[in-house]
């Protein structure tokens, strides 16, 4: 694995790939799926698809963390809050979802056997998006417990797997979801055989992306290393530039609360995407207790099934990373902010975490 401590190297790869903005999709799991919906709704002009895996709807917490299983949510309150944000330009217009030229796709997975977020609550997302005319595919038939279903990895499908929240259900959910989000023509990884990964799994400095001007202050000698970018993937050069800690962004920030971002995030580049092919980008957000550093290592990034689908279909997969907050006791589980622990703007586009992800992708402000 190559480690890169630099913002512009990764950004240059996005430019090289020239991924159309409407080819950016996002997914998440469990309660953090609220962040997926928040990100999609806030930036629906840039994100064309949203994958929802056993998670409650947008603004479900309504400023309160849950103290047990999610069993009921007010759809009216959600709709009113969304209208309010749109009115104040804190969320994108829902017309982006109904615009046929953008092709908005929604995938929703839930199970009647889920004991953490009951199926009826997850299905509210379908009701919300159906009002916007989105193209929705649902999977409500699998007898699974709460978790991310895979074809060949994880705990028993019907059992709550609290170790990493990934369940072996003989279902390649990553493929089923991404195939829908990208129009239905993806190549499926063969069942029962190994899909060789020939791309690059890269660690990058998230903080540098969120404060790119700091990189410009590096000395010219360090910046000269960027001229090697064209041959970087082929020659396997490892760039090591000073790591940046940005106040209010990373979990190690001196400001205290911050946005709980870890210093490093991860990204997978299929080979063709390093050679000028126009590749779509999928943002795969981890769930609570699924981040790399604090809880599960590379289990979510490498075992959930995203990489095999990406390899066969030339999709860049971005894995932003949060970390247990040592300053904010409300986020000891490395959760994305779906209830307001870090910002009163957690459900609109002013949210620090959503802004951070936006900067990583490189969308204009």
UniProtKB/TrEMBL annotation:
InterPro entries: AB_hydrolase_fold. Residues 1-17 form the signal peptide. Keywords: Signal. This is Uncharacterized protein.
């Amino acid at each position: 694995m190559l480690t890169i401590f630099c913002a512009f190297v990764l950004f240059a790869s996005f430019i090289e790939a020239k991924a159309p903005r409407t080819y950016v999709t996002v997914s998440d799991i469990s309660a953090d799926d609220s962040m997926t919906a928040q990100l999609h709704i806030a930036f629906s002009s840039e994100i064309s698809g949203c994958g929802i895996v056993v998670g409650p709807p947008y603004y479900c917490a309504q400023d309160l963390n849950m103290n047990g299983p999610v069993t009921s949510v007010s759809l009216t309150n959600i709709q009113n809050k969304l209208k309010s944000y749109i009115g104040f330009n804190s969320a994108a217009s829902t017309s982006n979802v109904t615009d046929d030229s953008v092709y908005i796709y929604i995938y929703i997975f839930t199970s009647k056997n889920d004991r953490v977020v009951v199926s009826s609550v997850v299905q509210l997302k379908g009701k919300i998006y159906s009002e916007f005319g989105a193209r929705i595919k649902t999977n409500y038939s699998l007898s699974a417990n709460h978790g991310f279903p895979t074809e060949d990895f994880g705990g028993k499908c019907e059992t709550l797997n609290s170790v990493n929240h990934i369940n072996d259900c003989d279902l390649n959910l990553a493929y089923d979801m991404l195939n829908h989000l990208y129009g239905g023509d993806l190549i499926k990884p063969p069942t029962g055989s190994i899909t060789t990964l020939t791309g690059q799994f890269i660690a990058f400095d998230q903080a540098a992306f969120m404060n790119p001007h700091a990189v410009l202050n590096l000395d010219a000698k360090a910046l000269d290393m960027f001229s090697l970018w064209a041959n970087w993937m082929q020659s396997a050069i490892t760039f090591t530039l000073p790591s940046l800690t940005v106040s209010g962004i990373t979990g190690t920030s001196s400001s205290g609360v911050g946005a709980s971002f870890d210093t490093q995030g991860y990204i997978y580049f299929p080979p063709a995407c390093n050679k000028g092919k126009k590749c779509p980008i999928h943002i795969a957000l981890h769930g609570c207790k699924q981040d790399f550093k604090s809880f599960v290592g590379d289990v979510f990034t490498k075992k959930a099934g995203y990489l095999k689908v990406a390899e066969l279909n030339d999709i860049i997969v971005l894995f932003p990373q949060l970390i247990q907050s040592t300053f904010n006791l409300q986020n000891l589980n490395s959760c994305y902010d779906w209830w307001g622990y870090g910002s009163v703007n957690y459900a609109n586009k002013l949210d620090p975490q959503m802004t951070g992800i936006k900067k990583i992708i490189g969308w204009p402000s």
